[in-house]
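Example 293.
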Amino acid sequence: MKLIEGKPIAEAVYTECRTELEALKAEGHLPGLAVVLVGDDPASKAYVGAKDRKCHELGLHSIKIEMAADTSMEALLAQVASLNADPSIHGILVQMPLPEHLDEDTVIRAIDPAKDVDGLHPMNLGKLAMEDPTGFAPCTPSGCQRMLVECGIETEGKHVVVVGRSLLVGKSIALLMMAKGPGANATVTVAHSRTRNLAEMTRQADILVAAIGRPHFIGADHVKSGAVVIDVGINRVDDPEAKRGYRLVGDVDFDAVAESCEAITPVPGGVGVMTIAMLMRNTIRACRMAVGA
Ligand code: NDP
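Predicted structure in complex with NDP:
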């Protein structure tokens, strides 16, 4: 079994980022990312902090905007509009989930598609479906694809089964995998909570992608011998022995599945690491496109 670790692959992406960043800086351009956090959800805070730190580490301009949990829709939309108009900002990410009184869809649609580095604006999702390379693909799905490519895992003609149909992950991975071109050209099945005989379906996968949000949901009976397993899930489970009282586990029961598969991503240390790398890459690209470099 081969362990597909995110860190070295993310490092390869960061090396590319540094090269592109140097070229942009030499021409007087500095890519900027704005991350907006509404409320104080601890997991969201941790993600936003990690994104901000990575920007600083790479030398990108980064601003972190923290808004109160009771922020009104008008105030949030005004913030987005101001970032849309700010020429020093090339990427805008509004951290999801938002507090319940705020409509996520309206907020995403308010972001300038040219700054939508999370790739969730209808314009970018439409471009993803149309295989138009001028759009931004969502970061986690493109991170998964990059992992497969870097590990030399052939996708062409392979049966990819994706469990989960969210726009953020499942549906977008499916679109990427069925597109024409390298790292794609797969035959894709998408399963979800209404799928019948799920295990029967997932056992047909050459490449199984789990994006469910349920700890250890995918067990040995879901995976055929020799399959490649990409575990997107990040779930907190109570662990009194852990320093924080919890630990992170994937949607796949790693110990049960690892033995029989050809390759598998760990959690943590797998797909999660790639998401921020692809966000940095998208932000630098957004800057390049904005300045016409
Ligand atoms: P969502 O809750 O939006 O989607 C979950 C999907 O799983 C839904 O399509 C749902 O089906 C499906 N599902 C739920 N239960 C079952 C079941 N019993 N059988 C089959 N399918 C089921 O979650 P996300 O897509 O946003 O995230 C999925 C996981 O990925 C989470 O653990 C999340 O934390 C993680 N994640 C990780 C990221 C990373 O950087 N690695 C980034 C984003 C997410 P239905 O549509 O029918 O409800």
